[in-house]
Specification:
Helices cover 48% and strands 26% of the residues. By secondary structure, it is α+β, with helices and mostly antiparallel strands. The protein has a single domain, classed as TATA-Binding Protein. Helix 3 packs antiparallel against helix 6.
Length: 136
Amino acid sequence: MTLPLDLTMMLSQPYEEAIESVTAALKEQGFGVLTRIDVDKTLKEKIGVDFRRYVILGACNPPLAHRALTAEARVGLMLPCNVTVEEVEGGARVNILNPRAMMTAHPDLGGNAELAAVAEDAYTRLAKVQEALAGA
């Protein structure tokens, strides 16, 4: 069974406001934003190309990260949980990486019961982020 790669939603808010809403909704579910990559600015700076406004937020819930890393250190390759916000006509599109899909992406991880439990907890929290944003 193939799981969807992400939880996705459209927001009618302007781009910068959408980033603030996403960050606040993540915080409500125990996630902090550890990293922010402004893809458009980075591409302009590094290779001189114009790109739509697009940011990658590296979200982390420390208790969940600790549980996952304790169960399998290689899961760090998939952390933090990436969330993208991109400017589109009429607002912003938000994509949140699906932790269920991440944990089943490789056979070494799919059979680990503790990782599956962490992924389920993370998914439940991120689905609440999606619900909160849908009501924004």
